[in-house]
Specification:
Elements lengths: L1 H6 L7 H11 L8 H14 L4 H7 L6 H12 L10 H14 L3 H5 L7 H19 L6 H29 L12 H6 L42 H4 L11 E3 L27 H6 L17 E3 H8 L4 E6 L4 E4 L5 E4 L4 E6 L4 H12 L14
Antiparallel strand pairs: 1-2, 3-6, 4-5
Helix pairs in contact: 4-5, 6-9, 9-14
The protein binds a DNA duplex through helix 4, helix 5 and helix 8.
InterPro entries: EOBI/EOBII-like_plant (IPR044676), Homeodomain-like_sf (IPR009057), Myb_dom (IPR017930), SANT/Myb (IPR001005)
Keywords: DNA-binding, Nucleus, Repeat, Transcription, Transcription regulation
Pfam families: Myb_DNA-binding
DNA sequence: AAATCCGACAACCGCATCGGA
DNA sequence: TTCCGATGCGGTTGTCGGATT
C-alpha cells in the first residue's frame, strides 16, 4: 500500500514530502535481516516500545511502523517463549477458545510468552486441520465435543506422562505451586456451567487470580493423600453441582487410556454415527455397537476420571467455580464456568501410569493412532 | 536424486478502535 | 462533534524446510 501510494505522489515538491516519498519507495518487505533486528532492538532499548511510526522513521529502518511493531511483539521481545506449545498450553488454548472464540490476543494474555499470532497459527494448523478431517466445522458442537472428550483428556495424560518422565529421570521438577487465594477456594462449586457449554464471553476467567501468580494455568504439586487434601476437603462431592454426563465409548487409545467418548453439550449423550468422520479421525476401529445404539449410556465424569486418570492428573477448579468432581485419590476435577483451571500434576502413582502405558503399547496395531506429536 | 506435497510460522493486509487536536 | 493518525486485532498469504512419492 505504501509503495503504491508513494508512486502516486510524484508531484510532491516539499522537501519533507520528498523525503517521505523516498522513504516509502524504499520500504522493505518480507523477512527481517539480522541488521534490522538489531536496529529495532537498539532503538527500543533506548526509547522504549510504542510510537511505532515514529520509531520506523527515526530508527533507520525502512519498514512501516506496523511491521516494526509486529516484529517486536511476535519475535524480538525478550519474554517471547520459543518452542512447541506444551500440553498445558494446548489445553488452555482449547479451553479459552471454547469460551471466547477467535479472540487470539485475549487468549494470548493468559499464555505468558506466547503471542496471539502463534496461538492463531496453532489453531489453524493443528486444530482446524482435525476439524477438516472430521468434515465438521471447528466451531460445531460435535467438534467441540471431540475436543473436550478426546483431546483434553489426552493432553492431561501427556501432562501426566511428562510429569512422570521428570519423576523417573530426575529432570527439573515442575515449578512450585502458585500461591492460592482464599477466593479461589471460596468460589469453587459456585457454578454449574459445563466445561464446554455456553459461557459468559466477557468475564475473564483469571479475574480472581492472585496478583503476581505468573499466569493462571500452571502446574503445581498436589498432596496425594485424600485425607489431607485441602482442595478436596472444601468441596465434598455431595455439595457439588451436577456433574456433566459423559457418554462412554468402549475404546482405549494407544497408550491404554480410556474409554473416551463424546457427549453433547447438555450432557444427555450424543449420537455419533458418521462412520466416515470416525474413519478420518482414525476411530474407524471403534466398536460402536449396534447401529441403533450409538447413544451410549451416560456415566459420570467422575467415573471417567477414575478409569482414565491413573490418579496422577487432576484439574482443580478455582475462582469462578463450576462443576467439580473428585477423583479417587482426593483431587478435584472440574469443568465449566468462568473458572480458574489449574491442572494439577503430581508424581504420585506415576508408576502405575507407566505400567499402563507400557502394557498398552504392547497391544499392537489394532489400537488406533491419533497421529504423532499432539494435536 | 528430483519433484511434489504439506506443515509450520513469519509477515502482510484491511478493518476496527482509541485518543488527541 | 468531527477528523485523523496511531495502534491493535484477526484473517490471510508467502516462504521455507522436512516428509513423501
Amino acid at each position: 500500500m505504501s509503495q503504491r501510494k508513494g508512486a502516486a505522489m510524484a508531484a510532491v515538491t516539499s522537501s519533507k514530502h520528498h523525503e517521505d516519498q523516498e522513504m516509502m519507495m524504499e520500504l522493505r518487505r518480507g523477512p527481517w535481516m539480522l541488521e534490522e533486528d538489531n536496529l529495532l532492538m537498539n532503538y527500543i532499548a533506548c526509547h522504549g516500545e510504542g510510537r511505532w511510526n515514529l520509531l520506523a522513521r527515526c530508527s533507520g529502518l525502512k519498514r512501516t511502523g506496523k511491521s516494526c511493531r509486529l516484529r517486536w511483539l511476535n519475535y524480538l521481545k525478550p519474554d517471547i517463549k520459543r518452542g512447541n506449545l506444551t500440553p498445558e498450553e494446548q489445553l488452555l488454548i482449547l479451553e479459552l477458545h471454547s469460551k471466547w472464540g477467535n479472540r487470539w490476543s485475549r487468549i494470548a494474555q493468559h499464555l505468558p510468552g506466547r503471542t496471539d499470532n502463534e496461538i492463531k497459527n496453532y489453531w489453524r494448523t493443528r486444530v482446524q486441520k482435525q476439524a477438516r478431517q472430521l468434515r465438521v466445522d471447528a466451531n460445531s458442537a460435535v467438534f467441540r465435543d471431540a475436543v473436550r472428550c478426546y483431546w483434553m483428556p489426552r493432553l492431561l495424560e501427556k501432562m501426566a506422562a511428562t510429569s512422570s518422565a521428570h519423576h523417573h529421570h530426575g529432570d527439573l521438577p515442575p515449578p512450585p505451586p502458585p500461591p492460592l487465594h482464599p477466593s479461589h477456594v471460596a468460589g469453587m462449586a459456585s457454578s454449574s456451567s459445563p466445561i464446554y457449554g455456553s459461557h459468559d464471553h466477557e468475564q475473564d476467567p483469571t479475574s480472581n487470580a492472585p496478583a503476581g501468580s505468573g499466569g493462571y494455568y500452571q502446574r503445581y504439586p498436589v498432596d496425594p493423600s485424600p485425607s489431607t487434601s485441602t482442595t478436596s476437603g472444601s468441596t465434598s462431592a455431595a455439595a457439588l453441582p451436577p456433574v456433566p454426563c459423559f457418554s462412554e465409548l468402549s475404546w482405549v487409545d494407544q497408550y491404554g487410556y480410556g474409554p473416551y467418548g463424546y457427549t453433547d453439550l447438555d450432557g444427555a449423550g450424543v449420537s455419533f454415527d458418521d462412520s466416515a468422520a470416525l474413519e478420518s479421525l482414525g476411530l474407524d476401529g471403534l466398536d460402536l455397537g449396534p447401529a441403533d445404539s450409538n447413544v451410549y449410556s451416560d456415566t459420570t465424569l467422575l467415573d471417567y476420571l477414575n478409569s482414565t486418570c491413573a490418579g496422577g492428573t487432576m484439574m482443580t477448579m478455582m475462582g469462578g467455580g463450576g462443576s467439580v468432581v473428585h477423583n479417587s485419590c482426593g483431587g478435584a476435577m472440574g469443568g465449566g464456568g468462568d473458572a480458574d483451571y489449574r491442572p494439577c500434576l503430581s508424581s504420585w502413582r506415576t508408576d502405575e501410569l507407566v505400567v499402563q502405558a507400557s502394557s498398552a503399547r504392547k497391544l499392537g496395531d489394532h489400537q488406533h493412532q491419533w497421529g504423532g506429536g499432539g494435536i
